Amino acid sequence: MRSPDIVVAFQGEFGAFSEMAARAYFHEAVTVAPQTSFAAIFEAVEGGVCTHGMAPIENSLAGSIHENYDLLLKHTLQIVGEIKLRIVHNLIVHPGVRLASVRRIYSHPQALAQCSEFIRHVRDAEPVIHYDTAGAVKHLKETGEKDAAAIASAQAAIDYGLEILQAGIENNHQNYTRFLVVAPEAAEPEAPAKTAIVFAMKDVPGALFKSLSVFALRDINLLRIESRPLPGSPWEYAFYLDFEGHIGDERCSRAVEHLGEIATFVRILGSYRAGDSVEGKVRQKR
Amino acid sequence: MRSPDIVVAFQGEFGAFSEMAARAYFHEAVTVAPQTSFAAIFEAVEGGVCTHGMAPIENSLAGSIHENYDLLLKHTLQIVGEIKLRIVHNLIVHPGVRLASVRRIYSHPQALAQCSEFIRHVRDAEPVIHYDTAGAVKHLKETGEKDAAAIASAQAAIDYGLEILQAGIENNHQNYTRFLVVAPEAAEPEAPAKTAIVFAMKDVPGALFKSLSVFALRDINLLRIESRPLPGSPWEYAFYLDFEGHIGDERCSRAVEHLGEIATFVRILGSYRAGDSVEGKVRQKR
User: Fold this and answer.
1) Closest-CA distance of chain B to residue A233, Å
2) Which CATH number applies to A90-167?
3) pTM
4) Contact of B12 with B134, CB cutoff 8 Å
């Protein structure tokens, strides 16, 4: 069933992991709108072209995706949900192509790095950098190369009518990407909730400790902290903090008020239901 | 004067900002040894080929250089110093080439991004990605292109015999890169000292707050915290912490001992003299 009301902006070509995350999160055949950059996701939602955006924020092997942290600060969207998608990489070829004839393997640099052990064992094949995983499959389809392969999602193989020669070729199967769902308006409270904020502290002794104390003193569990440079102020940082609880809970709202007394600025990025880890599901037809 | 005893590994071609950082830090004509990757810096020093390594760890606009954080954990070198180098980007061309004839501008993606406003105002010119700033100048020299330019350090222009058409073209002049100096043995205590450690916490409520408490309770000022994923353990992190003081001070050593009681592991990455912000100096001849 297609929901005509939900239009999700994601970065990449059809078949991208971000598209799989969007479909897994909304549990239905939502309309998806591919974008050429992370910034374009935020602009499409802010401009009303899309209702939601799906932005990768963190990979369990590679770490944070900083550009999206910076975009959360730059734009005024709210985080309304999250999903942790297991990243399964596949070697994709034209039907009938065998491993022995593969000379080039196209993919995004991060996917190539995450499959480096597999690639090393493919004799006479060299990795070739492409801007996007699903885009590498699209390229392979368009050029018709029979001596090359691409690394991408199973969905990308189906979408471009190519074949999976080997599935699950990533070095480490504990490979998850956490995506944030952004929208113009805040989400309805739903447990278990978590809240994301961004703040900056004056450069005084103990500043970071004091900022965390306002949560610890109220037994609010901190989930994650990330620092990003403040442009134009060398060695000053914006801190992105995730904590347990909804901003509508008095305990949480008082902690953030308390933080406001000692910070140069505080902004609530959103309260949302803590997401589960999921395996991506593929669709056979669009 | 050349010190025959100091051989500094850096990543990039001659003329790279890392080479300028090495020369600014050691205040003399040390021997510099270019490497093709950050990992090679650590291997060259660990293997005894070089006495020191110069590794960029953080840029005041772009943020942390995560690969070097991971390499500090992987290898057993000590941090023995730091320097904050101002990054000045220059538009470099073959002698006599004028701005109106520039159609392509080569540089590292980050340098292109940091000069985006300048590039936008060069009519009919498009940015072209190169693996390295100084390498882009070397490329321009070798191909002899008269309708192209490169963005790199002033040193790179001198080293490859090309000309600076416009200096200081970065969007934001508050652009500094902090480099760490690594060596096999710890540095002698020198004030004002700072110490870098890496640790991981059990996933218990208040873990991060407790880990910072051991410093706050002893009035030790925290300078910076950075988290990186622990490979194979999704959503668990290694924390890299910088604090004021030398690990030889009892207050600091007791704090780290205390941290050891509540952490799954703690490692001291090094105590060293807090470095100054410097402007790079260029040499006319090698």
Assistant:
1) 7
2) 3.40.190.10
3) 0.87
4) yes
